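Example for tutorial group B:
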């Protein structure tokens, strides 16, 4: 292309100045004023460079198309980054974005499969005990009272588990359809603490709430209630008789954040499980005898995240666990 432009410019110059073009070398084929051989050589070089450039651009796009087809077929482990051959352009950035998306979707799919496995296991246990109780009742009607009590207990456990699963599903699905209202979280904490302390005293435990003032937000009241209640009742369940559960609520960041800590003197958890305890059906070794669905802390974390907050656990000095819930005011 540059040669064509140069020839055109030279021809125009000669035409405007009235000079005649110098005669071509003897024996050189011409196409008008243009020498054929150099013209063909330059044209071929331009075509070759264009083809190489088109191949360079289209090859990673073909890799991306291949990866998307495999991903659509359900092969969630497909990654395209290693096929970019060290590229550092926008297409390579797109490939890395695809890999991050694929990794996240694969992680979520694996978590859902694990959750379904756990749900089936958790449902099977009370159903098995129900079937055993019905079988014993049929074999020996004299045990009717004891077996009916067992059936009622397992029915209540199933009802609680299904209710927790529905709550977890609502949280995962998002806030659509869940009403919001103005609530005073300090007042809500006081109501939860009063109920929990009443139950705690029956087992020689005490619960103390240190909170003052008010913290009014617009939120999904039922979900916020469940978040704080689950954390407080979890501390109550794992605290030994004669111990004290301390709940402290402080308004921070100029009234824009409520930070609540729940401290117990229970057995605590291994340091490596401080994050895992907020996953569904996670149980710490040695806690099998403690009743519960294994969903309470998972619901608490999802409810806090839904409202822009956080919840985390740390080990308490001297034994026990400290769970900190941070709930912001959102416009």
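The residue assignment follows.
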């Amino acid at each position: 292309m540059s040669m064509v432009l140069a020839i055109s410019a030279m021809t125009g110059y000669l035409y405007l100045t009235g000079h005649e073009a110098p005669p071509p070398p003897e024996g050189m084929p011409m196409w008008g004023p243009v020498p054929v051989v150099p013209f063909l050589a330059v044209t071929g070089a331009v075509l070759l460079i264009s083809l190489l450039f088109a191949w360079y651009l289209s090859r990673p796009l073909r890799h991306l198309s291949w990866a998307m087809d495999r991903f659509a077929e359900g092969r969630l482990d497909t990654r395209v980054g290693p096929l970019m051959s060290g590229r550092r352009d926008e297409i390579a950035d797109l490939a890395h974005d695809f890999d991050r998306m694929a990794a996240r979707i694969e992680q979520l799919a694996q978590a859902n499969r694990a959750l379904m496995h756990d749900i089936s296991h958790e449902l099977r246990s009370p159903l098995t005990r129900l079937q055993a109780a019905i079988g014993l009742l049929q074999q020996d009607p004299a045990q009717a009272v004891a077996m009916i009590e067992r059936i009622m207990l397992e029915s209540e456990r199933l009802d609680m588990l299904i209710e927790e699963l529905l709550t977890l599903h609502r949280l995962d699905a998002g806030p659509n359809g869940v009403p919001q209202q103005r609530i005073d979280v300090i007042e809500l904490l006081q109501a939860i603490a009063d109920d929990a302390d009443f139950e705690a005293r029956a087992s020689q435990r005490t619960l103390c709430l240190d909170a003052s003032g008010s913290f009014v937000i617009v939120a999904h009241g039922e979900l916020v209630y469940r978040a704080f209640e689950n954390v407080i009742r979890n501390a109550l369940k794992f605290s030994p008789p004669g111990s004290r559960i301390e709940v402290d609520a402080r308004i921070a960041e100029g009234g824009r954040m409520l930070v609540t800590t729940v401290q117990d003197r229970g057995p605590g958890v291994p340091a490596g499980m401080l994050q895992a305890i907020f996953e569904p059906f996670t149980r710490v070794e040695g806690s099998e005898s403690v009743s519960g669905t294994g969903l309470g802390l998972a619901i608490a974390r999802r409810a806090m995240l839904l409202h822009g907050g956080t919840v985390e656990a740390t080990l308490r000095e001297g034994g026990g666990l400290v769970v900190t819930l941070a709930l912001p005011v959102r416009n």
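Residues 2-75 form one domain. Compare this with the pattern of hydrophobic and polar residues in the output above.
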